[in-house]
Each structure stands twice: as C-alpha cells, then as structure tokens.
Amino acid sequence: IDSGIRIIKLYPGGMLARLDLEEDFIITKINTFEIDAPQTLVDVLSEATGRVRVEGVNKAGIKGYYTFYLR
Which residues are within 8 A (CB) of 55 and not within 5 positions of it... i.e. 6 or more apart? Predict the structure, then answer.
C-alpha cells in the first residue's frame, strides 16, 4: 500500500459506519483521488456528489470497495 488512512474509530450514525466499513479498514482511494491524509478524505468527500467509490484494504489484507451515492 503506497498511501491510505486507517479507520481507528467509527461513530454510530456516521457516514463511514453507515457504509458498513470496519475499524482498521485502510481507505486508499475515493473515486480517482488517492487518500494520503485525513484532511484529504474530508476534502474529497465534501466535494463529492453522485456515485462515490471508496477503495481500500481490510485488516486481513483483502482489497475491497464500497459504493454509495451522495446528493
């Protein structure tokens, strides 16, 4: 993994928890944007609309992605 941020804590009702992401999942990319810092995640999600794809790796090392829609 060249870049990414690890989910340390999920908050009930928060966006990442509603996507069924797990703690220790490493978010590596959102759509075409590499995620290399927490602020990058915030910036990308605050500008995103429509279909959003979150890519990453779980704690077992398995790559996966989640897709959701933002208005």
Answer: 27, 28, 29, 30, 63, 64, 65
